[in-house]
Amino acid sequence: MTERMTGAQALVRALEHVGVDTVFGIPGGAILPAYDPLYDSTKVRHVLVRHEQGAGHAAEGYAQATGRVGVCMATSGPGATNLVTPIADAYMDSVPIVAITGQVASKAIGTDAFQEADISGITMPITKHNFLITDPLDIPRTIMEAFHIASTGRPGPVLVDISKDALQADTTFSWPPIMQLPGYRPVTRPHSKQIREAAKLIAEARRPILYVGGGVHKAGASAELLQLAELTHIPVVTTLMARGTFPDSHPQHMGMPGMHGSVSAVGALQKSDLIIGLGVRFDDRVTGDLSSFAPYAKIVHADIDPAEISKNRHADVPIVGDCKEVITDLLNVIQTSGQQGDYADWWTALNSYKQTYPLGYETFEDGTLAPQYVMERLSAIAGPDTYYVAGVGQHQMWASQFIGYENPGTFINSGGLGTMGFAVPAAMGAKMGRPDSTVWAIDGDGCFQMTNQELATCALEGVPVKIAIINNGNLGMVRQWQTLFYDQRYSNTDLQTTRRIPDFVKLAEAYGCVGLRCERPEDVDAVIKKAMEINDVPVVVDFVVHQDAMVWPMVAAGTSNDDIKIARDMAPKWENEDE
């Protein structure tokens, strides 16, 4: 059945048909025609953010917490370019979002018209696909295609740019449209021969490791992963994007690998003779100096994106497919063959690493708060059913290291792009996607000052997120590098928040939130419990921590994982080597 309506009405109707319930955005001239029918929609809730970057990160948080496609909307020119950072962030972390932008009238495109920017050209390298619509008839089909592309295969951001005259013009609307994506056929079923080859290597290995990335969570395969790990008794490491995909409390979990990973996780990769990489990128933060990464290991690499396989490290057994299907097929082959590897010596070595070099931290004699202690207590009090959303920097690493993750998807952060300002709007989006869950944003005092205006959105929209600001008065991670590598020359990292500029408690109150402050270890529990009791408005807690707290362990950028330090000038002694 076809109806007559404007392009703008067709856009809103299409969004309703693909199941959108929440859109984050800000109106402006070129997108204004779309906002008029949005006013009448009973199915789509529009959330008026305070900055377009906030709209994009909120869409990401919503997508990560729900597994559905997040949606953000902005006008042309500066509105659209303000979405570039969250689009790039979503691209790096494979987050399914659709960004809808207004564009100047089709006849004005290319004339440097007021508020014109070639947003499809600008975002081409950082989107899975993007569209420029100048014919209103194309709107329903393009929206359906955009959501299909964003959510299938390797998820990612899709941009839909629509000219103002296409939104204003009359058109016919019919649903469902027929998609026209002849070249888009993501492979989800793995090749059975490759599965058998992988199973053979697993049976032959003496020191295997399951290297688990965000792709396993995105495939909804955490239950299958647990089954595979327990069947084979192979140790597991989970990357920053996979925290919680395998339970932290499980005895086979070795921790997080990488630059600030645990000694047991980094050591397990370095000493392994077989790495089974599932939904991972072998990125620089995990591998360190690539030429010295896991020198004894053969590689099984499974990923839904063929471009990732052998990109950084050659795969002996490449497997293209959805991780859920890959793991399921692997389980079937291993169970049928009945072959079991002998990993007794391997477990002796790994358990030794785990016991000898557990994660720890420095406490301060002057009674100053250690940020890691805040994380430990937050984890204990808020619990594993909470969603934790981190910004970028030291606080992000402490949140990964000292909070216990038992459930998939409960740690949301900006991994690939490392976007300061991610936490507050992403937590807002996560809370709107999961209104019955507790959502804690863990932010640094530097990150928080980039997007804290979204507290106004949270307060007005009734989104009671909880924000823990880890306030060390500095751009902490940069300061740590200046301490270690730049002779303590602290160039432009002092934020002066120790002078209470701004006063985060007063700022929270000015935004209609509850503001709390904690400066002493003995007060941490009471302050967290008080924040947990407030569920009708957002809560901001200013945890004033020691400015020189550092993130350890650490593999310095560009160095070998063998050179991991557990503290300044302190390295683990690798034992039980049988190479």
From TrEMBL:
Organism domain of life: Bacteria
Pathway: Amino-acid biosynthesis; L-valine biosynthesis; L-valine from pyruvate: step 1/4; Amino-acid biosynthesis; L-isoleucine biosynthesis; L-isoleucine from 2-oxobutanoate: step 1/4
SUPFAM superfamilies: DHS-like NAD/FAD-binding domain, Thiamin diphosphate-binding fold (THDP-binding)
Catalysed transformations (reactions): 2 pyruvate + H(+) = (2S)-2-acetolactate + CO2
Residue ranges annotated for the Thiamine pyrophosphate enzyme central domain, each copy included: 195-330
Entry EC no(s): 2.2.1.6
PROSITE patterns the record matches: TPP_ENZYMES
Keywords recorded for this protein, A-Z: Amino-acid biosynthesis, Branched-chain amino acid biosynthesis, Magnesium, Metal-binding, Thiamine pyrophosphate, Transferase
Note describing how the cofactor binds: Binds 1 Mg(2+) ion per subunit. Binds 1 thiamine pyrophosphate per subunit.
Enzyme type, top EC level: transferase
Annotated ranges, domain Thiamine pyrophosphate enzyme TPP-binding: 391-543
Keyword check for Metal-binding: yes
Domain Thiamine pyrophosphate enzyme N-terminal TPP-binding: residue ranges: 5-120
Cofactor: Mg(2+); thiamine diphosphate
InterPro entries, alphabetized: Acetolactate_synth_lsu, AHAS_TPP, DHS-like_NAD/FAD-binding_dom, THDP-binding, Thiamin_PyroP_enz_cen_dom, Thiamin_PyroP_enz_TPP-bd_dom, TPP-bd_CS, TPP_enz
Family in the record: Belongs to the TPP enzyme family.
Entry-linked PANTHER family: ACETOLACTATE SYNTHASE CATALYTIC SUBUNIT, MITOCHONDRIAL, THIAMINE PYROPHOSPHATE ENZYMES
Protein known as: Acetolactate synthase
UniProt organism field: Nonomuraea rosea
